[in-house]
Amino acid sequence: MAKLSTLLDQIDSGTILLPEFQRGYVWNRDQVRGLMRSMYLGHPVGGLLLWETSTEDTAVRGGLTGSGTHLLLLDGQQRVTSLYGVIRGRAPAFFEGDPQAFTGLHFNVEKEIFEFYRPNLMSGDPLWVDVTELFAQGPVPYLARFADDPEAANRYLTRLNRLSQIADKDFYQEKITGADKTVDQVVDIFNRVNSGGTKLSKGDLALAKLCAQWPDARSTMRESLTTWKEAGFSFTLDWLLRNATAVATGRALFTALDRVDAEGFQKALKGSVDHVGTFLDALSGRLGLDHDRVLMSRYSFPVVSRLLELNGGQFDDAAHRDKVLFWYVHSALWGRYAGSTESTLQTDYDVLHQSGVDGLISALERSRGGSLEVRPHDFEGSTRGSRFYPLLYMLTRVKGARDFGSGLELRAELLGKLSSLQVHHVFPKRVLRDAYDRGHVNAIANFCFLTQQTNLEISDRRPEEYFPEVEERHPGVLASQWIPTDPELWKVENYLHFLAERRRLLAEAAQSFLSELATGVEAPAEEPLRPVTVLASEPDDARSVQIREMADELLRLGFAEPELDTTISDPERGVVLAEAEGFWPNGLQHGRGKPVVLELDPEQADLPRLQELGYEVFTSVDSLLGFVNRLGQDAAGSTAEEPGEAEDGAAEAAGATAAPPTADFGAAMLSIYERARSEADYTATFFLGMLSELGPLGTARKLLNAPAVSDGFANLWERGRLDLTVEALVLRPEFEALFTAEELDRARTRLAQFGHRFLDE
């Protein structure tokens, strides 16, 4: 047994370290809050498993002081790191992760609950105590804070004393000892003991063995990942390791690294970093694929790394480079590595060794039935998650697409200060949403790229209004963006015909350019394409705002960052299952739980197959946030009220002296539900369930205080009926007294953000 305070001192002194094969810190704020609550209540929180070994034989992370025997923390890293972070107010020396997960924890001495700092809730409220500050100075300094109420002060100080005594909590320790224990054996023990937590991947296991020979392996790899991230490309440790494995061994399985010594791996890693850099330069300079969103198949990179390794680190010439790019684009478009990745990679490594890039192209053609042709229906996807979104961007960059406003080609060197591009809906969403579903509105064939200034100037004008002006000022500019020139197709009622014709034009352009790559027809002699900045989608899209707010809230709570607008393919068949608004491939918390999918167009996705593959699928933002909220409640065991659950105090919370009867407000809430159903063809089932569970005031407050606009708000925005939202209802003069000034301001801000006029109505 060891006291928590002793464990923390051992971490400070470098006696307790972390083995290099351990993943970084992956807990979120809800788990930290739940742990602290359990510690405060005296509930069991589990023991620790440590490995007593010589640091001379094992790669470690942390503040190593001297050689000899140390204790390596195997099971309990997340708990010990969380407690260290909260109590010390900083991360331990071995920390890798996001310190926001344990920064700013506060304790309410009246309600005995833990929450992370929120200025609007805690600022100036003496009942909220900074937990880290409490551990630093003890309970006594808080006597003055509660001096006006001796009875309450006694109660509060008792609670603070109980909280500060967490540092004296005894933890049961179990140790693995014996000089004969190898890293492989200990990793196996770790995985068996940690079966309910985050298991090590095959890459982690391989890297753990390499780190035993070369302790700086992980940090060296992370330096390259950081460099690429600063350049706009996000890669993972496993991905880089796969490239290095390809260079070192020509094998797809990580186990091939068992035969590679430290010196050999260092050389292979340097080679793979160089090869990735060479290929990124080609993708950006020749194809214009200059940022993470448009970077296609990442699993094609190890094949290119292997090709460059066999070829002395460079392409033979421009024609050879273009053939490799041709293969790369098609391998991405047709999901070459969406299925059995390692077996397909090994097949391609072997083909590459025998026949070079020509063999790779032939193998890809055979897998596609002999044809690599791009056809119009391939551009039928919607959202920026479609595989063909990067192809549209590529065509824009390489084929001289011009800006509607300036008439200039969309090249950084020509646009100068105007080089920030934005995705533009050719037919504005607001003029389409009443007649067409969201899949058609967000079709790839309705996208083009313009400078931000031009996009703002066009705003919501219809093509039949602004196309003639654009073409008159800059003849040929529409054709440069593959826009049909038949004026009949510029009318909203002919929108589907417009999409069909533009898909045909895009397919022709794509096929022509890719054929040039395949046949080695070189681009005109000129400087490589310089990167441009692509900004987020138009800010007036309530759906985009809702999803972004949801992602920001999950990040704030310590959950993983999602991939937004991304294609999810069947790992066995390679076909596209969904173009999801949000995707957490490793679970909401990295390495724990099922992969999570947010798909707001369920009719366009194969939901049964996603569920069969073990994905957790949500079809609304509200349902996903509700799931996350339940996770938080389960983790924290908190009985804290949701905002607005206690209706009896509504008038006091609003600072009102004579609030209107809640029955009137309840009738009004039911009225907007009925009107939305009859006038806007929207049935707010989730809203009705909330009314039943929380009551009208509780429902309104929950929606107003939610971190993201609700599904109902987004749906009513799409129908042009924000007058039927809860935000509009609470601003009616007869109901304003029921809500706080902050809640009313939030309602005004949301409505104003999306152009709704709510004053004097």
Secondary structure: elements and pairs:
Elements lengths: L1 E2 H10 L2 E4 L9 H13 L6 E7 L5 E2 L7 E7 L1 H12 L16 E4 L4 E4 L2 H4 L5 E3 H7 L12 H15 L5 E2 L1 E4 L6 H11 L8 H12 L3 H14 L6 H13 L12 H26 L13 H10 L7 H16 L7 H27 L21 H10 L13 H4 L4 E6 L3 H4 L5 H4 L5 E5 H7 L4 H11 L3 H4 L14 H25 L13 E3 L6 H15 L6 E7 L6 E9 L11 E3 L8 H6 L3 E3 L2 H16 L13 H4 L8 H18 L5 H20 L6 H8 L7 H5 L10 H13 L8
Parallel strand pairs: 2-5, 3-10, 11-13, 16-17
Antiparallel strand pairs: 1-9, 2-4, 3-5, 6-7, 6-8, 11-12, 14-15, 15-16
Helix pairs in contact: 2-25, 3-5, 10-11, 10-12, 11-12, 12-14, 13-14, 13-22, 27-28
Whole-number tally of structural domains:
5
> With helices defined by DSSP (H or I, 4 residues minimum), what is the helix count?
31
- In the predicted model, the low-confidence regions spanning at least 5 consecutive residues are 635-659
- Strand order, sheet with most strands: 4-2-5-3-10
Mean pLDDT: 84
Instruction: Categorize the overall geometry.
Output: flat
Percent helix: 40-55%
Largest sheet, strands/sense/barrel = 5 strands, mixed
Cα-atom Rg, whole angstroms? 29 Å
Alpha carbon gap, first and last residue: 68 Å
**Which structural class do the helices and strands define?**
alpha/beta
Strands, total number = 17
Strand content: 5-15%
Describe the 3D structure.
- Helix content is 48%, strand content 10%.
- By secondary structure, the protein is of the alpha/beta class.
- The chain folds into five domains: 175 residues, no CATH class; 172 residues, no CATH class; 128 residues, no CATH class; 95 residues; 107 residues, no CATH class.
- Strands 4-2-5-3-10 form a five-stranded mixed sheet.
- Helix 3 packs across helix 5 and helix 10 crosses helix 11.
- The termini are far apart.
